[in-house]
Amino acid sequence: MIRLREGTALTALFLCFATVVLVMSADLGGIARRTPLAVAVPTLALLLYQFCRDLLPAGTADDRAGETAPAGGEREVSRREWRIIAGFAVLLAAIHLFGLSVALTIYVLYYMSVETGEGWRFSMSAAAVVWVVLHGVFDSLMKLNLYDGMLLGWVIETLRRGGA
Amino acid sequence: MLEGLGTAAWQGLAYTISWPYILYPLGGTLLVMTFSFLPGIRAVTLTALAIPLTFGWEPLPVLLLFGALIGGGTFMGSVTAILLNIPGNPPNAATLIDGHPMARQGHAKTALACAAVSSALGSTFGIAVLILLLPVMREAILLFGPPEILMLAILGFTAVTAVNRGSAIKGFSVAGIGLLLSFIGRDPRTAELRYTFGSLYLWDGLNMVPLFLGLFSVAEMIDLAVSGRTSISEQREGRELSGSIVEGAQAVFRNFGLFLRCSVLGTVVGIIPGVGASVASFVAYGHAVQSAGSGGQNFGRGDIRGVLAPEAANDAKDGGSLVPTLAFGIPGNEATALLLVALSLHGLSPGKELMGQHLSMVFVLIWALFLSNWLTSILGVSTAGLLARITLIPVQRMVPVMVSLALVGAFAFRGRPADVAVTLLFGVTGYYMKKHSWPRVPMVIALVLGGLFEINLQLTVQLQKMGRIELWSRPVTVILMVVIVLVISLPALRGAKARRAEA
Q1: Which of A131-135, A159-163, B115-119 shows the lowest per-residue confidence on average (mean pLDDT)?
Q2: Nearest 5°: phi and psi at B189?
Q3: Distance (Å) from the C-alpha of residue A75 to the closest C-alpha of chain B?
């Protein structure tokens, strides 16, 4: 009987990537596709073999390793994973809109107070330290011009124009 | 010639330790040590930032500062690799394979001390070879062409077999995926665009820094957050941490043969322009595993030799990488490329002029490198106990701070917001890879070596076709081929012998 496991999705993802590379290589010139093809074909073969192994009801010990759930049971682990991944998606959107320093400071504040359950004073201090490091070290000292984000960038630009 | 070398060496030392010039290597070392704790901020970043700062300086303090920046960052990358499973630089990924399991078992002090001693002695070995090679640099470098570099890249790939602890199928497939990822962007010879999906971002290929920060830093933080661990070492008090500094330092002398062999590997790889430290570290790690034979079952689970070998090679390569830089103006790596920029800005031309008229300046650089390598190691050993306490920090407090620093580090490298998204994407992928026992280190090895492998393969084939080279008449190529065959076949032969003995 075929058995679908979470790990199978990862194998499928790698399989898709190798297949896309193989298909796209067909449109490339002789020199440009030579090495990728030489790598893609055996990789695809290995991944197909692994995919079939993943679908078997009883995988080998190697395949099952790591699938034992840590503290909290499988459902709890899955819930924590999805919270983190969803948090990353929101963080990415926030960085895009408000820039790195604002988004990351809020992220630290949120994570410390809500996810970790730290007190507000500690969370605020941690967020302030992150903000100081981002601005003090990266922006001011290293002159890296941290990304301002679309919305904040637009606000800063408008204020600058208004000032001029 | 030797008398001239001695005088220049003495003069260089006198310049280096004179007041106030001694402050430059000391300050540079402390600066690079502090910043190396921030993910994504590599010694190369600091070296690049130092160029505009030093425009108006005299050449002497510039050389002292650059020597310190090049030498100081190497060891510090392994501190985060051991303690947090986050390698500071790609070559330090070889150190985390055994270093981090030691930290998780509460032996962080031992691992850090071993890495520090191995680094200091390895760098001294590399510098000694650099001084000995000064008179014959040209001949040594000309021994290495595309076929030899190709063989070294293949030798680096053989480390994939050594770092594979679980399923071999998964290890090799993931190395294949890493190679395919390294092919994204322009073809190195024809400049034809490959697998870019019309995205301008992918024209230059996937950059190593965001990929690396994602696969290790972010993935590790997700794992810690999900695992419910209280701290990395699962201990609450410093006194509960076992391991000792003396034990770590002694490990280097107990395995002195291995240390010497890995230092030689590191120096040779460092001398070859463009090969990079990652090859040195992974080849050394692979050698440590393979030379251990049946006594190597503990590799990957916290074997001290897995820390010693890559650290010795990684630091020994610093001296080696200065050989082509100073002799021909060919940078051995990114840091030495920036050093060349600084040299030319201050009117020092590598080659005959530098090696003849300004030999004492060459020694200033060498002494600064030596000083910073030893200083980082001495500080590393003396603060090992304190550093080991990082493994006691509650993980839930560490996660948001480390994720934030990783994302800023990814952005800081090239100033591209898309790198932040790539870091998070590879962070999630890296976490699921770890969860489902897909090894991440083979992917890093393949990503690092992919470009080097492809361009040298193409050049070798082309040169062979044109009749410009004959593989079998090149002694270094043949020697490396024999080494590759031995490295691949010896474990299989040993395994067969052991099975026969059991039967």
Answers
A1: A159-163
A2: -100, -45
A3: 12
CB atoms within 10 A of CB A137: 18
Structure letter (DSSP) for residue B362? H
Residue A68 is given by DSSP the state: S
CB atoms inside a 10 Å sphere around CB A15 = 20
Residue B306 contacts by C-beta under 8 Å, 6 or more apart in sequence? B95, B97, B98, B99, B285, B288, B289, B299, B300
Using pLDDT thresholds of 50, 70 and 90, give the confidence band for residue B433: very high
Q: Residues of B315-341 as b/e, b for ≥16 C-beta within 10 angstroms?
A: bbbbbbbbbbbbbbebbbbebbbbbbe
Judged by CB atoms closer than 8 Å, whether chains meet at B167 and A60 is answered as yes
Q: Which residues of A touch B397 (CB under 8 A)?
A: 112, 116, 118, 126
Task: Tell me how far apart the alpha carbons of residues B332 and A117 are, in angstroms, rounded to a whole number.
Answer: 49
Q: What is the dihedral sign for C-alpha B72, B453, B450, A13?
A: negative
Chain B interface includes A27 (CB < 8 A): no
- What is the pLDDT at residue B28? 87
Which backbone phi and psi does B125 adopt, to 5 degrees?
-60, -45
CA–CA separation, B116 and B122 (whole Å): 10
pLDDT of residue A67: 47
Residue A48's identity, in one-letter code, is L
B457 vs B157: CA distance, rounded Å:
14
CA B316 to chain CA centroid, nearest Å: 10
Cα separation, A154 vs A67, in Å, equals 46
- B187: tokens are 């073809």
Whether residues B420 and A108 touch (CB distance < 8 A) is answered with no
* Residue A24 identity: M
Decide if A137 touches B, using CB distance below 8 A.
yes
Residues B441, B447: Cα–Cα separation, whole Å: 10
Chain B CB contacts of A36 under 8 Å are 180, 183, 194-195
CA distance B152 to B277: 12
pLDDT digits (tens, 9 = 90+) for A35-54: 999 999 999 999 999 999 88
H or E stretch covering B185: strand B185-186
- Contact of B350 with B329, CB cutoff 8 Å: yes
Nearest to B331 by CA among B396, B271, B408: B271
Among the listed residues B360, B327, B281, the one whose alpha carbon sits nearest the alpha carbon of residue B95? B281
d(CA B370, CA B93): 24
C-alpha torsion angle, residues B356, B361, B367, B368 (rounded to 10) = -140
Q: Nearest CB to A108: which of B189, B401, B458?
A: B401
Residue B153 C-alpha, separation from nearest chain A C-alpha, in angstroms: 14
Q: Tokens standing for B295?
A: 């006594």
Distance CA B325, CA B310 (A): 23
For residue B283, the tally of other CB atoms under 10 A from its CB is 29
**CA-based nearest residue to B396, from A60, A108, A27:** A108
Residue-wise pLDDT tens digits, B445-485 = 888 788 888 988 999 999 998 988 888 888 889 998 988 88
Cα angle B273, B144, B326; round to 5: 40
Option in B173, B177, B194 nearest A36 (CB): B194
Kindly determine whether residue A144 and residue B412, on different chains, have CB atoms separated by under 8 Å.
yes
Of A18, A77, A96, the CB nearest to B177: A18
- From chain A residues 32-71, the ones with a CB under 8 A of any chain B CB are 32-36, 39-40, 42-43, 46-47, 49-50, 53, 60, 62-63, 65-67, 70-71
B185-186/B193-194 β-pairing? antiparallel
